């Protein structure tokens, strides 16, 4: 019991597995801590990237309009990290659990969905590889029944045109994405970015040569926004996360919510666990440290998720 007399979260893995075994609709809400073991820096906490820069100063349309050179260096740095990164055992545990034939051994008859705030694409990589291993590359095997992965903050390799009349989106994994950004990684590490790379040297739209950005621009006309919402891009503060209504549907049906490697400080993702609990569901937090609201969780497994998750879902 905490001093407030409220129940403390359980650390009992056997009890968690009993809850997992009886769960019918499971969701995982994931954050940067899921990819930390893959070498992708987190935002907050020790070594976090936001520690050096205020979140709002880099991941907003206003920041991009004011200083695209700074914002592009930040994203170039993270693109380069993502290109070198491989999924870790936490990604693999989620990928295996997304396959019904595997999941139903520990959670019979359950549905599952992964809602990630991460834009690094590592969950996609893990799911592709684990699926191929599970089906021994049998091309006829249909992944349709596998758990959906919703990248609600978009994908870092999507690059979008900022011109209202173009809206071109390209999945671009070029390294570096443009010559002027090449070799700026060290400056980002040292928080000594050169904020004066001219716009003409920053990534340009291949179709109309307007300035490109990592993510959808909210100045588009409605139909373009509709188009863009169907595409993935990086979602900045004040911009609408992708597939929110699908997320809401999954949250509303969930009776178990796994909260993995997130500080639970960015909304609306940070609301999901509380909503599941309000409808009678259970919440299990997997985090290296204490995180926002974790004392309300039913289970709290402190430690690296690349260790705790394979144990919990295996
Ligand atoms: C929106 C860009 C509305 C992508 C990011 C209430 C409801 C709705 C909105 C709001 C609200 N209150 C406030 C808002 C506004 C705002 C918000 O949340 N502000 C905060 C600061 C209060 N939200 C928004 O603006 C969102 N938009 O709601 O739009 C709307 C609706 C209709 C029409 C128009 C608009 C948009 C939010 C998206 C912002 N984009 N980044 C990118 O570059 O990646 S935010 C950034 O933070 C990242 O996306 C990241 O995914 C996200 C969350 O961070 P975490 O993933 O949790 O990472 P963090 O470093 O914080 O924590 C890591 C954790 O891992 C730590 O706890 C650590 O202990 C742990 N860890 C580390 N290693 C390990 C580990 N755990 C386990 N194992 C390990 N090995
Ligand atoms: Zn264009």
TrEMBL record:
Cofactor note: Binds 1 zinc ion per subunit.
Positions of Zn(2+) binding: 161, 166, 205, 208
Active site: 153
Biological role stated in the UniProt entry: NAD-dependent lysine demalonylase, desuccinylase and deglutarylase that specifically removes malonyl, succinyl and glutaryl groups on target proteins. Has weak NAD-dependent protein deacetylase activity; however this activity may not be physiologically relevant in vivo.
Name of this chain's protein: NAD-dependent protein deacylase
Family classification: Belongs to the sirtuin family. Class III subfamily. Belongs to the sirtuin family. Class I subfamily.
Superkingdom field: Eukaryota
GO cellular component, one term: nucleus
UniProt source species: Mycena chlorophos
């Amino acid at each position: 019991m905490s001093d407030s007399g409220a129940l403390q979260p359980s650390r009992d893995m056997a009890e968690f597995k009993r809850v997992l075994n009886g769960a019918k609709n499971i969701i995982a809400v994931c954050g940067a801590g899921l990819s930390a073991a893959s070498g992708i820096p987190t935002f907050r906490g020790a070594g976090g990237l936001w520690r050096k820069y205020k979140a709002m100063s880099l991941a907003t349309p206003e920041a991009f309009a004011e200083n695209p050179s700074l914002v592009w260096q930040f994203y170039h740095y993270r693109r380069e990290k993502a290109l070198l990164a491989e999924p870790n055992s936490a990604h693999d545990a989620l990928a295996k659990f997304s396959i019904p034939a595997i999941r139903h051994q520990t959670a019979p008859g359950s549905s599952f969905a992964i809602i990630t705030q991460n834009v690094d694409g590592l969950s996609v990589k893990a799911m592709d590889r684990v699926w191929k291993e599970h089906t021994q590359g049998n091309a006829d095997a249909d992944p349709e029944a596998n758990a959906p992965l919703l990248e609600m903050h978009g994908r870092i390799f999507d690059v979008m045109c900022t011109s209202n009349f173009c809206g071109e989106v390209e999945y671009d994994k070029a390294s570096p994405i443009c010559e002027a950004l090449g070799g700026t990684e060290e400056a980002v590490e040292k928080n000594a970015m050169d904020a004066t790379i001219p716009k003409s040297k920053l990534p340009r739209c291949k179709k109309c040569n307007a300035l490109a950005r990592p993510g959808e621009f909210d100045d588009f006309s409605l139909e373009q926004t509709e188009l863009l919402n169907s595409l993935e891009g990086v979602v900045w503060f004040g911009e609408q996360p992708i597939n929110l209504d699908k997320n809401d549907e999954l949250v509303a049906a969930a009776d178990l919510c796994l909260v993995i490697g997130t500080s639970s400080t960015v909304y609306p993702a940070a609301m999901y666990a509380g909503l599941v609990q309000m409808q009678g569901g259970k919440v299990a937090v997997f985090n290296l440290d204490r995180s926002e609201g974790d004392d309300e969780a039913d289970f709290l497994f402190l430690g690296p998720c690349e260790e705790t998750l394979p144990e919990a879902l295996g």
